[in-house]
Amino acid sequence: MTNIPETGRTPRVQTRLVVIQILVLSLLGTLGGRLWYLQIREGAEYQKEASGNHVQRVVQPAVRGDILDARGVPLADNETRLVVSASRTDLTKQKDGGRAVLTKLAGVLGMNPTEVAQKVRLCDAKTPRPCWNGSPYQPIPITDEATPQQALQIRERSEDFPGITAEPEAVRRYPGPGKSNTAQVLGYLSPVTDEEIQQAKDTDSPYLRSDMVGRSGLERTYDKVLRGKAGVTRYEVDNLGRVIGKAESEAAQPGANLVTSIDSRVQRVAEYELDKAMKVARQQYDKITGTNYKADSGAVVVMEAKTGRIVAMASAPTYDPNVWVGGISAKDYKALTGKDSDYPLLNRAIQGQAAPGSTFKVISTAAAVEAGYAFDGRYPCTSSYSVGNQVFKNFEGENFGPISLGRALEVSCDTVFYYLADKEWKRDGGSNPKGTPKDYFYKAAHQFGLGKETGIDLPNEVTGRVPDRRWKQAYWEANKDAWCKTGKKDGSYVEKIAYENCLEGNKMREGDSINYSIGQGDTLVTPIQEAVIYGAVANGGTMYQPTIGKAVISPDGKTVREIKPKKRGKLPVSQATLKGMDDAFAGVMTRGTAAWKFGGWPQDKIPLHGKTGTAEVYGKQTTSWLATYSKDYTVIMTIAQAGTGSGASGEAVRNIYSALYGVQGDGSVDDKKALLPEPQKGLPKVRTDGTIAAPKIAGDPAKDTETAQKDNPTNGGDDQQPAGTTPSPTTGNRDTRRRRRHRARGSRRMPS
Question: Which of 134, 284, 435, 639 is most deeply packed, by most CB within 10 A?
Fold first, then answer.
């Protein structure tokens, strides 16, 4: 017999098991209660506290790459400045939205409180500039011109300036070497927007909220390579903001440097000569309008004829690109965009469109030859050309008799081109062609690259316009209702035009083709398009895509990516015709419409070629065009409301060539004073540390050129015949006359 129960447990063991079970159940109950307490009753509170433990990112901005000229001289670089910034997030936490702090800050900085407040407000459709168009979570710069004393005062009294920082930062700078400006070519920067951040989120070049991005010019085109990559350090912090650990770190990567084909010395000369030519034009009396010329805008392009690389590009009016640095003021923004500003932000070299006048005759000549008319044939250069009761006059009624197309280019005889264009219009079937018309004159314009972008590496280039049959139909469909509503058969001049356009505005009328042949009517071109065309004539027929970027150099200088010239195509002209045009364009400078401005030029040493043009703009004064080239360069200048091509632009273009080749006022050539006697071939020297060696520009290249030209007889005045100039049969081109304009059938002819 045994006292052990069948379960194998003694009473003592049984008791212990019961006690253990009670303890386990008690512990489980306690644990469950605690979990309920933490997760349910106090869950929200602990969740709030836990949210304070998070990762904080500290961004180290990347140093933006420099933009350099062809010799390595900085056109855009960076400098360290004391930047005072405001955190909008911190300001909005204050009871008054931070108004008191901003007012106090304005007092320290010596600024207007309203101006400071405007800088931190967010941009939207209803908020005028200035305002902040970047991320609202990014520090907003108030000024980048703080003095050390001001910065120290803000830092030492941080309790009085919550949300305000004063730190040294790398800030963009546009130094303007040699007093050059280059504003529209360089562009400017502004903060990245939330929308841009989202759009670039999944790309190979995402934005950070601290990024500044290019908004126009080269800053925009090459933004990705210039911007670099900001450094980001991630810290784990608790709810009190104390760092409890370092998660990871990415070092900032500086942006690459962009070497351009711009020569800052030539750029300065081009800008100076354009500005001077406009000022001189404003002193000249316009007999047509009875007032002085307004000369309110203009552009210059200097391009390498054999590569398409841009050596200088000037646009007027211009502005100081540094006004954008640190946030633009309301006053400066209005000056750049207001109705009375003449819109200096526009780069008129690629965005300015105007009728080309007689510079267009290079295309009309090619079209005539393609249509079967011999270049050396004889065509009537009469004093006028009649179509029905409409008379199209040659300027000043010149009558040179039967002449070749080459001679017609030299003396800019309009009636030769009237005759050829009208003959082709009739051959194509007139206003109601049967079948597909040949349209040689319009086809040639497209083949020369008009009506589309040149592809230059600058944003927002415009296409110009070729008013062919397709365009006329589309334009008529878009405007027919308005014309029919306002047009009257026996109304005012404008009403009569509207009436005719309502009825047959979609038809290619005889007057349209006649006007078109001399670059008038609805044709629009840009200076850069003219540069490509005349550059192609200069180099034997190859059209290049114009470029400004020449090479991208990595920050350490070890990687160089050269941007090679790109060919766009060939001119639709035979070599024989090109040779004839080339000879004619040389004649323009020696015995044609530009001879009175280029007297004494060393044509035997540095042959120049060109074509003048004076284009009509309805309701405004005439636009001056001068398209020229040497064996190395193409120089195009245009000035709106300035008179004739040679009269307004001749002296300025001559001075640009003088600076390039070192031509002195007496016609001698001083190679030591030549800025760029041949195009820059190599790239700037890169030092072992990655920096780029840059020569210094001594003095003012434009003033030096001006001094050298004092012996130039053409500087004596526009009415003086330069010594050594062959008397030109078209010297009357110095003056302009208004003729009655019949827009529906033809327009008046202005001088070349």
Answer: 639
683 CB neighbour count, 10 Å cutoff: 17
Residues 702, 264: Cα–Cα separation, whole Å: 11
The CB density around residue 494, as the number of other CB atoms within 10 Å, is 12
Structure tokens at 427: 């051959």
Tell me the residue type at 260.
Answer: T
Encoded amino acid at 213, one letter: V
Asked whether 659 and 700 are in contact (CB, 8 A), the reply is no
Rounded to an integer, what distance in angstroms lies between the CA atom of residue 349 and that of residue 299? 5
pLDDT digits (tens, 9 = 90+) for 21-30: 888 888 887 8
Q: For residue 747, how many C-alpha atoms fall within 13 Å in the half-sphere facing its CB?
A: 22
**Residue 597 phi/psi, 5° resolution?**
-105, -10
**pLDDT average, residue stretch 417-426:** 96
Q: Can you tell me whether residue 48 is helix, strand or coil? A: helix
Tens digits of residue pLDDT in 136-168: 777 888 988 889 899 889 988 988 899 999 888
Instruction: For the chain, give the percent of residues with pLDDT over 90.
Output: 60
Q: What is the mean pLDDT of residues 291-313?
A: 97
Range with the poorest average pLDDT among 26-35, 91-100, 471-480, 654-663 = 26-35
How far separated are the first and last CA of the chain, in Å rounded?
A: 140
- Number of helices (H), then strands (E), in the chain: 24, 25
- Give the whole-angstrom CA distance, residue 581 versus residue 359: 12
pLDDT digits (tens, 9 = 90+) for 342-368: 899 999 999 999 999 999 999 999 999
Cα distances from 249 to residues 63, 230, 245, 262, in angstroms, run 17, 11, 12, 39
| Cα angle 600, 605, 608; round to 5 | 70
Which tokens is 103 given?
């007012």
Sequence letter at residue 174? Y
Q: Across residues 241-245, what is the average pLDDT?
A: 59
In single-letter form, the type of residue at position 277 comes to A
Is 749 within 8 Å of 394 (Cβ atoms)? yes
DSSP conformational letter for 465? B
The 10 Å CB-count burial string (b at 16+, else e) for 714-734 is beeebeeebeebeebbbbbbb
Q: What is the structure's pLDDT at 748?
A: 43
Question: Whose structure tokens read 């500005």?
Answer: 275
Query: For residue 144, which phi and psi values (nearest 5 degrees)?
Result: -115, 20
- Compute the distance between CA of residue 445 and CA of residue 366 in angstroms, rounded to an integer: 9
More confident residue, 37 or 526: 526
Nearest to 123 by CA among 110, 106, 140, 111: 140
Token readout for 398 is 């010149």
The three-state (H, E, C) secondary structure of 613-664, written as one string = EEECCCCCCCEEEEEEECCCEEEEEEEECCCCHHHHHHHHHHHHHHHHHCEC
